[in-house]
Amino acid sequence: MAVLTISKETGCGDEVCAIVADKLRYKIVNNEIxxxxxxxxxTPHEKAEKLDDRHYSRRSAFISDYLDMSFFKPEELLLPPxxxxxxxxxxxxxxxxxEGFRQTTERVIRMFANEDNIIIVGRGGNFVLKDHxxxxxxxxxxxxxxxxxxxxRSQGINEKExxxxxxxxxxxxxxxxxxxxxxxxxxxxxxxxxVNLGMVTIENAATFLISALxxx
Length: 216
What we know:
Helix content: 40-55%
Distance between the termini: 8 Å
Oligomer: single chain
Strand content: 5-15%
Largest sheet: 5 strands, parallel
CATH architecture: 3-Layer(aba) Sandwich
């Protein structure tokens, strides 16, 4: 049917994605993107997480770009994602490069998009797949108070901690997009639709996206 990319403020949008995926039988990929990128580049998972959009540090990425190595075997991308881990591994040189890991992440995103019927969360999917056919680019936003409550509930933490997470993760995501894509993550021109979940219900937002995807 189609590919849905999701950009979202921290603490909102997950429930909508879950409903859409359930109704349309789409697959959601989120942390899996970083996981497969780490496998393909032979990067330790803890290092890969630091290069991910939610943990992005411009200082770390800037320093690591000077340590880049030849690491990528294009043949590996011919394998479906489910076969990557079970395939015979190549002898990769580990990459420490923020730019190198970002390039691998983009290849993984394109690989998932080629499967169709998929929801790709974060990591600049809307920029990577801007020319991909049958793709709908959506951004979710919501008031900070609502997002803070959602994070408190999902992570079992207090209000101060939740509010800090909401603000800091969004700052990191914004810096990631500016550094790698030279774009403003909040610019509505980068998306087909921006949904304010403080103004519509989760159910109505999901219904709208299901309709939009059905006619892509």
